[in-house]
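re: ur question from earlier - yeah i can do the single chain one, its not a big deal. heres the input i used so u can compare w yours
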Amino acid sequence: MSSKRSQARNHAVQALYQWQVTGQDIGDITNQFLAEQDNASFEVAYFRDLLQGVPTHLKQLDDALRPHLDRSIESVDLVERAILRLGAYELAEHPEVPYRVVINESVELAKTFGAEQGHKYINGVLDKVAQDLRAVEVKAGGKA
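and the output i got, formated as tokens:
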């Protein structure tokens, strides 16, 4: 993962994980990350959008994920939960990003931060979410 947008996702997963664990204000976490990171190395506006968007749309994201999980959302590992929510948010709110890119980026995040086989779980769940949220694009083979 080397693009500035990929780095934004990388930081966003870490920040969302922190938010899930601590319950800290997302604005405070955002400011902390921006103070600690080299802002030239990632797309700051996209990072901010992801960090504001996931908590704002949390119920809709969890509702989109729930039918495709083999356990309750609360039982999903915190790292994988952050990645799934991030991926679902991008699928729902960023149609300019091809669904395959969203899934691939999420799988790479899971390989970096998640459990050993977590990337397979992320791939399977987000593939099903994409079929719900991006049905036309998925049917068209990603060329919507």
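The CA atoms of residues 110 and 118 lie 6 Å apart. not sure if urs matches, ping me
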